[in-house]
Amino acid sequence: MTSGVLELRERNGRRKHYLAERAVNGGDILEVCFSGGWMAMRYEWSGSDEPPQFHFSVELGGGKLWQSSLELPDAALLRWPLH
User: Fold this and answer.
1) Among candidates 67, 66, 65, 23, which has minimal Cα distance to 45?
2) What is the Cα–Cα distance from 54 to 68, expressed in whole angstroms?
3) Are the CB atoms for 22 and 78 separated by under 8 Å?
4) Which residues of 55-76 are buried (b: 16+ CB within 10 A; e: fewer)?
5) In contact, 77 and 32? CB cutoff 8 Å
6) Is 49 in contact with 43 (CB distance < 8 Å)?
7) Cβ contacts of 7 within 8 Å, gap of 6 or more
8) 40: number of Cβ within 10 Å
9) pTM here?
10) Radius of gyration of the chain (CA)
11) How far apart are CA 31 and CA 33, in angstroms?
C-alpha cells in the first residue's frame, strides 16, 4: 500500500482532506508511520482552520483503555489500512 500525506482540497466551497486520491471522512481509520512502525488512528476534523486530530487508545491491564489524541505535522506519512 502506498503511503502519502494528507492533501487539503476545496470543492464546491467545501474543504476536505484526501489521502492517495481518496476522500478522508471523520471516523476513518488511517495508519500513521512512527519510527517503530505503523499505528492505526482515527481521523477527526471539524473543517475549521484547526488541524485534524488523530485519536488512539492503549490497552491497559484489567481490560481498561487509555485514550488520547494528537495533532500530526503536515508532512506526516499516512496510509489506508492494509485489510
Assistant:
1) 23
2) 9
3) no
4) eeeeeeeeeeeeeeeeebeeee
5) yes
6) no
7) 17, 18, 19
8) 13
9) 0.89
10) 14
11) 7
Q: What is the pLDDT of residues 46-75, one digit of tens each?
A: 998 899 999 999 999 999 999 999 999 999
Q: What is the pLDDT of residues 28-39, one digit of tens each?
A: 999 999 999 999
List % helix, strand, coil for the chain (3-state, nearest 5): 5, 50, 45
Joined together, the cell numbers standing for residue 28 give 476513518
The grid coordinates of residue 61 equal 491491564
Which pLDDT value is given to residue 25? 97
DSSP 4: B
CA atoms within a 13 Å half-sphere pointing along the CA-CB vector of 27:
0
Residue 57, strand partner residues: 67
CA 80 to chain centre: 9
Query: Which cell is 70 given?
Result: 494528537
